[in-house]
Design goal:
Layout lengths: L1 H10 L2 E6 L11 H14 L2 E5 L4 H12 L4 E5 L4 H6 L10 E4 L3 H12 L2 E4 L4 H12 L3 E5 L5 H11 L6 E5 L2 H16 L8
Parallel strand pairs: 1-2, 1-5, 2-3, 3-4, 5-6, 6-7
Helix pairs in contact: 2-3, 2-8, 5-6
Pfam family, one: LDcluster4
InterPro entries: LDcluster4 (IPR041164)
Protein name: Protein containing YHS domain protein
Length: 198
Amino acid sequence: MKKDLLQSQFSHKFKICISGAAETGHCAAEAMDKALELGREVIKQNGILVNGATTGFPLWAARGAKEEGGIVVGVSPASSEKEHIEKYGLPLEYTDMIIYTGFGYSGRNLLLTRAADAIIVGCSRMGTLNEFTIAFEDNKPIGVLTGIGPAEELIKAMVEKSCRGPGKIVFDSDPKTLVLKVIELIRKEKNLKTKNYL
């Protein structure tokens, strides 16, 4: 019984949010390929991918996760599937489950980042930067994928000028390396050690 409990403690999947622009015209040409890689790597590292149930960069990451046979949970700004499709024009593809918050984009962003163990930021626009600042304020582990869009410099400047210290943030241009760095941050955050529960 005790052994089973300890094994289950270490077998929980990490929930990693992939955040990025829903419209990607400003992103580098290779951004969507890197989103696919990010999604695959989250699953290869025994994670669950969480995203904003949206288009663009997060959708491509979800596609990569599903191609790898993983689990994807979307968090929608809409209050129902009907509203998700008709009002927001958002997809249902590449998700195992969508949570309909009914809180619009800003409320969804808060719940999305709070639901995850860590957030990885890809090519960004304002909504992604909102998710980043929520995670930064919450002192969550954050990974920033570099080399695919202009917002990474803005992120670095925000952190430097925030007067809050460096946070728990790692940067890398390689999706696999970035996911591994983020998982290391999560492990430190959770301080996974054997505990005597019985």
